[in-house]
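Backbone-to-sequence.
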């Protein structure tokens, strides 16, 4: 038996999920990438949202619309597909690589091509990522506000080490939406990726209102197989506060640790750092 091959460390893959827009998925992915790289992890961020907000925040300035992108790596046509390594770009942060979105249309078009493909519709991202799984400790996938085929690809991206991270606000969600989200993840677990697990539920834009505090139990009831990372027991310390400065810093290309505001530099940075610890739990250290 080739021990080297069996012991090869491969990335843990984490997909941010929530079909509602504006809840903080992109902000979370960016901050987690930063928190992970500060821990010395090798990080890849995959932008699977045609809007490309993650790419806008992380990509170097010279990335132009004509550049190859994640859409090319997912192309079901053997002739048109580009290996993921040719698509990856360095980011504003050393140690974080990015599979970018360079044009919204390209990713939307490729999703249609994937849907029309005869075989392997759910596995295009898995196939694309295969060659680089051993080069990262953590692969973070940002998703569009949708439960479509790209999300299914994101959830089935790793054969045996993947987590679905729910990002949501505590007071703006619909029961129907949570049921559909849970069914989507469970459907992928059942049919495409039995090793897919729930990571947990990250509560974002937390204002610590009565309404929010009361709703945490309802949220937990929708996700019996995972944990809501906000509880009275620790004074809701793991909920990400609604602080406009978080948005300002990210837009300025700064990590929380680089902020001049002590709330961000300490409190927010520590929240994301603990999330990374949770995400990497059970994974051998580098
Ligand atoms: N904790 C937060 N505090 C303040 N603003 C936030 C916070 N998280 C996200 N935002 C802002 O809210 C908007 C939506 O967040 P975003 O991360 O883009 O959500 P999604 O990716 O789910 O659509 C963005 O303008 C973002 O800067
Ligand atoms: Mg987003």
């Amino acid at each position: 038996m080739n021990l080297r091959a069996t012991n090869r460390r491969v990335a843990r893959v984490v997909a941010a999920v929530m079909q509602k827009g504006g809840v903080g998925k992109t902000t979370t992915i960016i901050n987690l990438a930063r928190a992970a790289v500060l821990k010395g992890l090798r990080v890849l961020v995959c932008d699977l949202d045609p809007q490309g907000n993650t790419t806008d925040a992380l990509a170097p300035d010279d990335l132009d619309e004509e550049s190859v992108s994640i859409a090319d790596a997912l192309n079901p046509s053997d002739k048109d597909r580009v290996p993921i390594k040719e698509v990856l770009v360095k980011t504003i942060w050393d140690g974080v690589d990015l599979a970018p979105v360079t044009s919204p249309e390209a990713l939307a078009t490729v999703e249609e091509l994937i849907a029309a493909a005869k075989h392997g519709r759910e596995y295009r991202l898995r196939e694309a990522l295969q060659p680089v799984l051993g080069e990262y400790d953590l692969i973070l996938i940002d998703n569009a506000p949708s439960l479509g085929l790209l999300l299914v690809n994101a959830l089935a991206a790793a054969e045996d080490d993947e987590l679905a991270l729910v990002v949501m606000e505590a007071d703006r969600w619909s029961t129907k939406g949570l049921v559909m989200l849970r069914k989507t993840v469970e459907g992928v677990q059942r049919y495409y990726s039995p090793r897919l697990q729930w990571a947990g539920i990250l509560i974002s834009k937390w204002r610590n209102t009565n309404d929010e505090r009361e709703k945490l139990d309802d949220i937990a009831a929708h996700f019996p197989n995972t944990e809501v990372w906000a509880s009275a027991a620790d004074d809701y310390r793991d909920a990400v506060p609604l602080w406009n400065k978080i948005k300002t810093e990210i837009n300025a290309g700064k990590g929380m640790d680089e902020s001049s505001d002590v709330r961000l530099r300490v409190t927010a940075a520590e929240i994301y750092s603990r999330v990374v610890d949770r995400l990497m739990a059970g994974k051998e250290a580098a």
